[in-house]
Amino acid sequence: MELVVVDELVKVYSGRVVLDRVRFSVDAGRALALLGPNGAGKSTTLAILCGLLRPDAGRATIAGLDVAHAARAAHRALGVVFQEPVLYPSLTGRENLRLSAGLFGLRRDRRARRIAEVLELVQLSDRADERVAAYSGGMKRRLDLARALLHDPSVVLLDEPTLGVDVQTRAVIWDHVRRLRDEGRAIVLCTNYMDEAEELADCMLVLDQGMTLAEGTPAELRASVPGARSMNDVFLALTGRQLRD
Which of 167, 215, 214 is nearest to 193 (CA)? Predict the structure, then answer.
């Protein structure tokens, strides 16, 4: 079942085409990695999927719902982890989740149970009543993931989820992403870490200057570049630039 469909998306800023007929789909229980240098169109694609931007042409759907015309309904099926945590430092971790639960429209009788579940999932139950201002960067990323999962979405968008975190937190987040995929959710992962993309994604889409340069499994992309010893070699051959590894 296709839970994410991006069909011929076009976006133009000040006469410059930043998305040029981009298309892809993600089935339930699958993960797609969006790869590309700065300015490739990754963030614009995610913004359209979130309903924050409208495309100039084409359409995007979440769980069969057009995000441009049924945004509220589509948002109920969508969880998003942005590059910067969407948290209030002056509140405790639990208070942040209570606020988000109300915004997500969770019934009052379900909120406490669901908050306890996601805190346990991200291993923050014992720190839930401390102010977020005292959290480490890794703890903030884990709490932000908990926030995105509160309403049990079928689609999860992850924009650089491990940027700036330590190795231990990175491994924890990887485990969570694998679990979400195994539970049947559709994952769209935007990352500049090639090892992360290769480890977590079933399929990769390489963008540059708004155009799709390549799409396929990690094995297929490696095979497309003779002599490639790593995914960084593949990316370099396609774009002329390196990503982090």
Answer: 167
| Surface-to-core class of residue 112, CB atoms within 10 Å of its CB (0-12 exposed, 13-18 middle, 19+ buried) | middle
Q: For residue 4, which of 207, 213, 203 has the smallest C-alpha distance?
A: 203
Distances (CA, A) of 37 to 65, 137, 215, 235: 30, 24, 15, 10
Spans in the chain with pLDDT lower than 70 = 241-245
The whole-angstrom separation of Cα 14 and Cα 18 is 10
177-207 b/e (C-beta count within 10 Å ≥ 16 → b): beebbeeebbbbbbbbbbebbbebbebbbbb
CA distance 161 to 138: 10
Q: Using one digit for the tens of pLDDT, what is the confidence trace for 79-99? A: 999 988 899 999 999 999 999
- Sheet holding 211-216: strands in order across? 78-81, 155-159, 186-190, 31-35, 203-208, 211-216
How are beta strands 31-35 and 186-190 bridged, if at all?
parallel
Q: Is the dihedral of CA 74, 86, 148, 47 positive or negative?
A: positive
Q: What pTM does this model have?
A: 0.90
CA distance 43 to 49: 10
What is the rounded distance in angstroms from the CA atom of residue 96 to the CA atom of residue 24?
Answer: 34
Q: Which residues lie below 8 Å from residue 36, measured CB to CB, with a gap of 6+?
A: 42, 206, 207, 208, 239
Q: Which tokens sit at 14?
A: 């000040």
